[in-house]
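pasting for ref
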Amino acid sequence: MYRRGAVSGGSYTLSELSRHPDCVVGYATLRKRVDDGWDVTEAATTPGRGGPATT
């Protein structure tokens, strides 16, 4: 199942969103946050705790 989120006026899969310039976290963090119930936009645009972003 593909999960989609809308950021900056576009609709993206989580994989696509993790590579979007407005996304400040890697795919693993993005997916974990969404799995934990985060809003997709918040999950993508809230900085992590300082670790390196991974894809």
